[in-house]
Write a structure and sequence with these properties.
Helix content: 40-55%
Bound molecules: protoporphyrin IX containing FE
Structural class: mainly alpha
Keywords: Heme, Iron, Membrane, Metal-binding, Monooxygenase, Oxidoreductase
Protein name: Cytochrome P450 family 27 subfamily C member 1
Strand order of the largest sheet: 1-9-6
InterPro entries: CYP11_CYP27_families, Cyt_P450, Cyt_P450_CS, Cyt_P450_E_grp-I, Cyt_P450_sf
CATH class: Mainly Alpha
Mean pLDDT: 87
CATH superfamily: Cytochrome P450
Oligomer: single chain
Number of helices: 12
CATH topology: Cytochrome p450
Low-confidence stretches: none
Main location: membrane
Largest sheet: 3 strands, antiparallel
Number of strands: 9
Distance between the termini: 50 Å
CATH architecture: Orthogonal Bundle
Subcellular location: Membrane
Radius of gyration: 22 Å
Order of helices and strands: HHHEHHHHHHHEEEEHHEEEE
Length: 373
């Protein structure tokens, strides 16, 4: 099932076709920043920037997955979308508290019914959300076909027309991708914003890279990304310091010998890439935010690529990696978020990471978006 999806979104060029849609969402993000900061006394601050990035990520991923806009970033969010966002936020928070319910043995469920009931309710809500959008697309395709029109579109259109997956499988995969694609991207954007605000000299260099490498007023597209190595390095370094999924796991499929130890087939292994990300063996000056280490200038900047694997590795690695990269890379381009000078608001206390499944900012990140001179 995964292979059908992978072949459509595995490589940067596969997702490049979504650049224009993502750029429209970025324009709305910028408008939203203008609106939010104008409501503050200093005319610059956006409080709890993660709320904003949550809506951006949700709108971005919906544009790609469902090929439609939800209106998350509008001043007056459509009522139906408000309900979706509330339902989704509730689902996400309930999912976090009930994610262990799956481990409750069947015989115990009638005795302690609440966790299992809420677990099912949260998933039902998520499925319903996806189902509405998949069904809408299906109806639109059907009406195009009825009128003898040619059907073109993105991922969902392809899945519905090609019939390589059943409708049930499409509902399930769209649900899972939406769940996996919103918080992960928004937390990463929040951390990256925090780090750039804390390191104005790096922010200035990223801005200069954009101004020097992209023509004036150019609308950035995915094929511009390779010209901007520092932006890619900022994302890698952000995910090294704050990997949204700080750990991962695998069950060995055969006997393995690692470092002289025998690990028998069927052993459950827990991998903590948060720890390897901070190991001096893998990264010199590991506690510091140094995006340039990924540009491989000299020995000091040597990196161990397996020391930081924020998207996982191998056959079950993150299927949405290229989508997340597109959403994050493009939002830094000229005429986008770095049209502002990003500064930490005095209201923001030092932000430490906390984990409840995902690695999240421990308190609100309030950011000042000043006009760049
Ligand atoms: C910065 C953003 C993101 C990060 C850091 C991230 C990280 C991860 C990680 C670590 C895994 C587990 C990989 C493994 O076990 O090897 C994963 C799986 C997954 N991710 Fe992401 N992810 C991000 C964004 C997204 C987006 C935008 C989507 C969808 C549009 C997505 C969809 C998925 C799915 C469906 C899986 C399960 C893959 C499978 O089991 O085959 N992710 N992600």
């Amino acid at each position: 099932m995964r292979s059908v999806l992978r072949q459509k979104i595995l490589k940067p060029k596969d997702v490049a076709v979504y650049s224009e849609g993502v750029n429209e969402v970025i324009s709305d993000l910028i408008k939203r920043i203008h609106t939010l900061r104008s409501q503050e006394d200093d005319g610059e601050t956006v409080t709890n920037v993660n709320n904003l990035f949550f809506k951006y990520s949700m709108e971005g991923v919906a544009t790609i997955l469902y090929e439609c806009r939800l209106g998350c970033l509008e001043n007056n969010v459509p009522q139906q979308t408000v309900e979706y966002i509330e339902a989704l936020e509730l689902m996400f928070s309930m999912f976090k508290t009930t994610m262990y319910a799956g481990a409750i043995p069947k015989w115990l469920r009638p005795l302690i019914p609440k966790p299992w009931r809420e677990f099912c309710r949260s998933w039902d809500g998520l499925f319903k959300f996806s189902q509405i959008h998949v069904d809408n697309k299906l109806k639109a395709i059907q009406s195009q076909l009825d009128q003898g029109e040619e059907v073109n579109g993105g991922l969902l259109t392809y899945l519905l027309v090609s019939k390589e997956l059943t409708l049930e499988e499409i509902y399930a995969n769209m649900t899972e991708m939406l769940l996996a694609g919103v918080d992960t991207t928004s937390f990463t954007l929040s951390w990256a914003t925090y780090l750039l605000a804390k390191h104005p000299e790096i922010q200035q260099r990223v801005h200069e890279e954009i101004v020097n490498k992209l023509g004036k007023d150019q609308v950035p597209l995915a094929h511009d990304v390779p010209k901007l190595p520092l932006i890619r390095a900022v994302l890698k370094e952000t995910l090294r310091l704050y990997p949204v999924l700080p750990g991962n796991g695998r069950v060995t499929q055969k006997d393995l010998i690692v470092g002289g130890y025998l690990i028998p087939k069927g052993t459950q292994l827990a991998l903590c890439h948060y720890t390897t990300s901070y190991s001096e063996e893998n990264f010199s000056m590991a506690n510091e935010f140094r995006p340039e280490r990924w540009l491989r200038k000299d020995n000091l900047d040597r990196v161990d690529n397996f020391g930081s694997i924020p998207f996982g590795y191998g056959i079950r690695s993150c299927i949405g990696k290229r989508i997340a990269e597109l959403e994050i890379h493009l939002h830094y381009k000229k005429k986008n978020i770095l049209n502002f000078e990003i500064k930490i608001s005095p209201k923001t206390k030092p932000v430490h990471a906390k984990t409840h499944g995902l690695l999240t900012p421990g308190n609100s990140i309030d950011v000042r978006f000043s006009d760049r001179k």
